[in-house]
């Protein structure tokens, strides 16, 4: 499989030498291990007087270190005085009580520590509890459209985007020649890795409920979702459950980076709203692998792609509400704020006006944009910037 350099490598390089425990997170098969390999190579080639203690628990030769004391002893035995000592551990959760070793090593202040792990066992929400030292989290996403172009070296951006919509960013699937084989791979990743991790951590017995919930959420990407409504819908299909169980299962899926929850934001009142949220899938191809590609709602797929891209670019995103109308995204980063509508096709004047109307009702001066499949150069309409989605993804 071809390897490309991703922006995450620079982010790792920028924190070399800091006292933080660097934790690489993200959905399964999104490239965490490859990133750690590339980082190791960078250190070897660019850092002088270096000693790298590298452990990959995917490899049988490290099975003997799956106890925290043995892991600690191995690292201490390989410490090199007078050198810069880096500790790189892949799939750290495969070592029992790994956090005790990591905390001890960090307390000694003589190692630069980098770890990856299974999402279900190394959650963003658990980092502060697991580790007594400060952590620096780098969250990995599947390939962006820009990375997809870099991988395949496509010249025609519009044609490449058509392919990206169906092939997505799970790079492990790129080695297969047709979509059916790609989706089989992606389905296996979801079932064998993501769901399995969740089952193991939370001892879930009702696999059928997890499967039905997953399919429901995939089929309702970008729809406002409440736990009670989901439970009622599944009960109607003779799948017994309740809103509390649904809430727990959805949280597990989000913790495993399979879905991302987006809360609502009252634009006029400038406050966050609760109870009903939207959920976006980490990569649209998981939906195709589970539900097929018939009757695709391109507007929802584009909205999902934009949501993940905004997260990838470091924005906090919310669903905007204003005068009973909805703005797809309010994207915030430090002092920056952008109001965004996403659409499939705005060639029809009535459709364009419908998308523009909520944006024009917002009275502040922050940028307002529409992202759609225009296949044209960027332009403005009544002060609203219009972007073709393929062009916007390349910015």
Radius of gyration from the alpha-carbon trace, in angstroms: 22 Å
Sheet of most strands: 8 strands, mixed
Morphology call: globular
Question: Which ranges are low-confidence, i.e. pLDDT below 50, for 5 or more consecutive residues?
Answer: none
Report how far apart the termini are. 27 Å
The main sheet orders its strands as 7-6-8-9-10-11-13-12
Helical percent range?
40-55%
| Beta-strand content estimate | 15-25%
Number of domains as seen in the coordinates: 2
Mean pLDDT rating:
93
Task: Kindly describe this structure.
- It is a single chain.
- This protein is of the alpha/beta class and 395 residues long.
- It folds into two domains: 7-140, Rossmann fold; 145-393, no CATH class.
- The chain has helices at 7-14, 32-46, 68-77, 98-108, 127-130, 145-152, 157-167, 179-202, 207-219, 227-236, 243-255, 285-291, 298-312, 349-360, 389-393; strands at residues 21-26, 50-56, 84-90, 112-116, 135-140, 259-266, 271-281, 316-322, 325-333, 336-343, 368-372, 379-381, 384-388.
- An eight-stranded mixed sheet has the order 7-6-8-9-10-11-13-12. Strands 2-3-4-1-5 form a five-stranded parallel sheet, sandwiched between helices.
- The mean pLDDT is 93.
